[in-house]
């Protein structure tokens, strides 16, 4: 079993920093494998709880070496819910890497646990449109939702705005899953490379945000 770890989160920061500096990221420091995965970026601001800046991934198994590289940039720059992350935001970011495991199709749409399971909701709406959406395991607990509230939010996330009737609920297909995740702040990233890489690498990483900010200003 491969677990999400610090090296994966470091690689996501390496990838984003390298993008802003027009450089190649250092090679990953973890082994490969195939997993569904997500990359989530949040931003710290004025001591408040970090706010979401991008979250994109795949529910299908993918090589994690290329997956984290691709989704680091996709979630940071191309999540349509948010403006692209800018280089000047780097010092305020944290990244969470998630590997999804233990997929199970359940018999009832409430057969999952808040804080333990993520869920994929699929259904066909009254207009015969096929819809689907997912929340990672940590979302419902973070939002303080009950199971019903999480399911109703997923229905809306899937794009259906009509009434959520018992007939509609009878068409729900839910797949629950679990995840292994690791969260790293930019400060933790800088500390990691300070302890594990050469002096030149540390100097480059510390100045990356300033260099990139000037380049993209």
From TrEMBL:
It comes from Klebsormidium nitens. Gene3D superfamilies: Hypothetical protein ph0010, domain 1 (3.30.700.20). PANTHER family: AMME SYNDROME CANDIDATE GENE 1 PROTEIN, AMMECR1 HOMOLOG. Residues 1-193 form the AMMECR1 domain. This is AMMECR1 protein. InterPro entries: AMMECR1 (IPR023473), AMMECR1_dom_sf (IPR036071), AMMECR1_domain (IPR002733), AMMECR1_N (IPR027485).
